Amino acid sequence: MRREFGGIIINEFISGLDWSYLTDMVILVIAALFAFTFHELSHGFVAYKLGDNTAKHAGRLTLNPIKHIDIMGLLMIIVFKFGWAKPVPINMNNFKNPKAGMAISAFAGPASNILLAVVVLFVLGLVGVPLAKMGNTGVFIINLLYTTAKINCVLAVFNIIPIPPLDGSKVLFSLLPERQYYKLMQYERYGMFVLLALVATHVITPILTTGVDWVLNGLLPIAQWSSTLVS
Does the active-site annotation cover 12? Predict the structure, then answer.
């Protein structure tokens, strides 16, 4: 009798859980891992092609997300839906042209996220209708694909903002004369505090939201077009 009563309580507890929240969180984490992995891999791969072996020697030229995870950044995604990955190490002194090499390697991250968003939306258009007929499993995959595309757009737009240590600052700073460039790079670590303050106070939110909406809306026709290929 006691076991039966305990079983009833457990069943009632499980049935009362908000599984939609858990599902949304799983989708968010998976999508973020995809986006972060491609972002960091692209930094390291382009740097490697330009003559810097630092990322390769660190074992970062891989699609294994474990190599790119920052535990605190992952926890921040789960709790606050804002996080980060472990930055890929790059030694700009290994480039023939340090400023240009650093700018190209930095730009590779956001560019890879846009490319991944394009591919994911193309796939979503191809499989969206069949998946919608598969019930909850199909809906889960559709949400995962769409969220992956959106997270990639978020990561691309956010990182192109020209505030150190974001990628946009490395691209913008490369246009400066040598003296000013290296002086600003010395203060790059302090830019993180400015960035966190802007995020915490939501000052940057309207800019980010507008940018993401503009990019995502511009890419959505890809899914609409690919859906016509199977209709």
Answer: no
